[in-house]
Each structure stands twice: as structure tokens, then as C-alpha cells.
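Subject: two folds for Thursday's group meeting

Dear M.,

Sorry for the delay on this. The cluster queue was jammed most of the week, so I only got both jobs back this morning. I'm pasting them in the order they finished. Each block is the input sequence followed by the predicted C-alpha cells. Could you check whether the formatting survives your parser before we put anything on slides? The first protein is the one we discussed after the seminar.
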Amino acid sequence: MDNLLAALTLLTRLPFYRIKEVPQQCYSHATSYWSLVGWLTGGIMALVYWLAIKVLPIQIAAILAIVSRVLVTGALHEDGLADFLDGFGGGHDRESTLRIMKDSHIGTYGVLGLILYYMFFYNMIMSVNPYLVPFVMIAADAYSKCVSSHITLLLPYARKQEESKVRVIYSKGDLKFELISLIGGLLALVPFVLKIPGQVSISAILLPVLTFLLLTGLFRKRLQGYTGDCCGATFLLCELSFWLATILSL
């Protein structure tokens, strides 16, 4: 329970910290519960979209759904994506990339990247049957967080602990980590699989894994590890690949 509260506190702006003050070491194990947090963040998006389409045009419903997750997460993942793009776009080696990613100011690559990200995300939502969108939202969020959480198994942390934005270095997973992460990610796929044709489900499951492997390879080559910004970027790009695979297969 403490580890789940730690994950919810890290990945959302909701006042879970008021429920209980969890031990600091619990934050190191939060990756196990990312996929469960995805049920909440993806579920809020799906609920907002489902309620909005009953009274508003679907274009507005899509925007409100996107905004709802930004508000719930405090744009944590988007901040990571922007820093990742600035660092890898403007940096030429490990040191310069990490220095740029650490800078709190957003650069050209980050601005353009976020604009393109939201353009893609909005249009992908609009490309799916409105009846199916809530199922895709929940599945894409939880499953992509599940996939992204495995970054700690493949890469070491690229900075020192005191240089981390949240002063936390995630621990490497074990069997318990794998079970919790997979349960959260795979269970979210069940409604999706039941509503979407089989070939769509297979491609939507595989493409985020391929995206994850490509990104971790890039992180290994440039940084010899990962950072919190890499985690946020990995989640959003894996999620986009889930939507893309769904659209291409429908």
C-alpha cells in the first residue's frame, strides 16, 4: 500500500500525500505501480471524454480529456518529453545532454516537440470511433506505463541521487515488481481486447515494446543510463505508438 501511495504521489498532483506519509524508500519501488496509476490517469481521461461527448462536440471532448490528464499529472510526463527533446536535440555528448535536460527553461526542440505531440495525440483520438476511445485511453495509459517501467531493468540511473529532480533513484525490479507491473498493464488490455479486433490488439501490444527498446537503446548510447525525463518521454511515446498501432490496424 505504501509503495502504491508513493507512486500516486509521484505521478499525480492529487492529494494522496494527505492519506499517509509513506517512508522515503517506498518511492524507490514506485515503478512497480506505474501501471496501476495508469488506471487512474487513463480512467480520468476516459471518464471526462465519455461525459463530454454526451453534451459537447467530440473535438471539445477530446481536448477536455487531454487537459484532464495534464491537470491530474501536473504535466509531469510532458515536462520530461520536452527536456528529453531539448537535451537530445541540442546536446552532442553525455555531459552536454544531461546539462541541457537539467535546465528548467524549455528550448526550441521542446516547444516544437510538445506542439507535434499534442497534434498527434488529438488527431489520433479523433481517428478512433468515439465509442471505442475510452477503452483505448485506459489501455494505452496503463499498458504504456507498464512497458516504460521496465527501463530500470535495462539501464542504470544516469545521474547521482542528489541530482535527481525528486531525489529518488528507482530500484531494479524483482519478481514482485514484474507481477504487479504486468497485472496492472495486462488487465487494462482486457476491455480493449474484447472491444477491438484481434489483429489490432496484437499490433497495439507489440509496437510500444518496440518503441521502448528503441528509446532505451538511444538512452544507452548517449547517456549510458536513464533519467526521470527519459521515463516521462518513454511513456508518452510508447502511448502514442499504442494509439498509432490501433489506428493503422482498424
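Second protein, same layout:
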Amino acid sequence: MNLIKLKATKNDDGRTCFKYIIKILNNVPVSRIEKLFRKKDVRVNDVRISEKNYEIKENDRIWIYGLEDSYKIADHIEPQVNFGIIFEDENILVIDKPINIAVHGEPDCLDFQVLAYLKYEKVDSFKPSHIGRLDKSTSGIILYAKNYFTLVQMNEKTSNFEKYYVMKSDFPYEKEHVIFYSKFDNRTKRYKLSDKPTLGEKMETIFFTQGNKKYARIITGKKHQIRITLQHLGYPIKGDRRYGGDYGKRVFLHSNKLVFHKLSNELEYLNGTMFVSNEKW
């Protein structure tokens, strides 16, 4: 009988057994993995289990029967690396992303570039992952977690971080704190905004001016939040033709500052750390 023998690492600790196997057997259909549990073809520490929510612990021995030919040992990603590094240590990688690079979903996307830069090889259920995203047309700071513990805590605490963007817009105010609610219209393929909470997801943004530069601090961080909000206010970002802007060499939106707050345990040392990327236009 075919048998896959695995041993959980620190990066696997805390995942459910079901999610662990999905990550490890990343070319096996989920329906087939579900069948493993129904047939009790998964053994953890010499005990056959059917409980998908069993929580994996470091050094657990996981044996899986009947899938050896389907087991994908590693991901081999070798795109050209085309980004700047602002900061890196054993837990995080802070990147300065150029314009016109997608974060994921394309052959040369940032996710694949990061895996190539880190010389990633699949040894457990974790893969270095981005925390938050930037639009393909937006440049600047984006954060990656280099281990599972960091990924979980950063995603839990991201609403406490300060995230600033610099932009080109005719926005006329010294400071404006705006809250709208958005809903995607499948017919028009556009977002609708309203000040009524019943519409949909909350979009909260603080816009302000310092010197001759326009900035935005996002509080909620929804998809295209700054771009949609400025279009709704009548001051679209320069070059953002999708959301009402004029023609330009690029969308003039840049993620320029990130500050960490309220991190704990092994990540507490990062609290108050500020990362800055100056716009290049």
C-alpha cells in the first residue's frame, strides 16, 4: 500500500489536520482529501483519525495512505526578482514593490518573485505569504511573513497598523476623515458607495495634506479603497483612468509608510518600527 510519511514542523503547529494536508498535497483535489478522512486513511502518531479539525502539533507524525503518486514534493519557482528590500529578518520581509507587478495570479507575480528570492522549497505546510495587498498599478511597501506564527499574528493585528499612501489628486482639504460603505455591482462591474451602513462594507480613510503632497491613511483597508473613495468625492487619482482620473504615465498612488503596533510575544520587538518608501515619480 502506498504511504506518505510526514513530520510536522513549527510552521505547521496550530493548523487543523485537514488544512495541513491540503497545503502539503497541493495538487490533490480537496474532494479526494476529504475522502481520506472518511476512509480513515490518515494516521497521526500511530492513530487513525477521521476528525478533520484535529490540531496539528510540532513533531506530530502524519501518515497518509494511497496517494504517493499524487504527492507534490516541492514548488519550483524561478521568475526574475524585480523588487527592492526595505527590511528583512527571520520573521518578515518588507518589500518596495514597483508598478505593474501583480501581487499574485500571474507568472511573474510578486508572490513567485519572493519565493525565488527566499529560495523556497516545500518542507512543510507553510509558504511565505503577503499580508495585505497592493493593486498591480500601485507601488510601494508590502509586507511578507516568513513563518506561520508571523503570518497568523500579522493578519490578526493588521487593523492596528498605521498604513499611509502618497498620491497625486486635486483633493483640496488640509484634512478630511471620510467613511463610506461599498458594494460591488455585478452588472456594471463597479463599486457603489453610500454613507448608509446598510449598503455594504465599511471604507474608512483619513486624507490630509503636508506641504505640497497629498496623503491617505487607510483605517479599514478594503479593495481599491483610496481610488474608489476619491472618485466618489470628485477628486480621482491622477492617471487612474479606471476610477475617473485623466491619462498619465502611471496611477499616482504609492504605499509610503507602515508602522507596527500591538504585536506580542516573539514579534513584540517590532512595535513602533516605521518603514518608509519614497515615491519615485
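Two things I noticed about the second structure. The chain has a mean pLDDT of 92. The first strand starts at residue 3 and ends at 7.

Cheers,
T.
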